[in-house]
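The record is given unchanged here:
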Amino acid sequence: RVRAVWDGRRLEEMRRRRLLFGGVQVLRDEIERRGAFRVTDLLQGRAGLEVRRGGFGNGVVFGRRSCRMHLFLNGLQVRSESIDDLVNASDVAAIEAYNSAENTPAEFRGLVTDSGGGGGAARTGSSAGATTTAGVGSAGGFGGGDCGAVIVWTR
């Protein structure tokens, strides 16, 4: 189960990043209004982002230069083909997306820049001293140094 971390402070941080870096932001009211099941449904058709669907319908988000974007869940980087594999839209408080490294805040530029595929576990990030890991089961690479980021905050 994903630990909820959404609060007013996170919203203020998001608003500050939006002013400094631009990007796409989706808040809870829009999520509810659109009734989306998948997180990537909320990013489909947004300027500078491309969602490509896999065999099971889950989407992979690409930014500029057709580069697979880094994924973050509650501020921690995860290695997964799709954010849809990790969380449903109904559990999301907000989403931020930055389509290139140039317009991505430093804290989300990607801790793991391995562009190779393969399996296993990878260090994905840390928050308040806690390190998380996520399994990798893809045949493709994960976001490289030029990629942006998708940050999903749960409620």
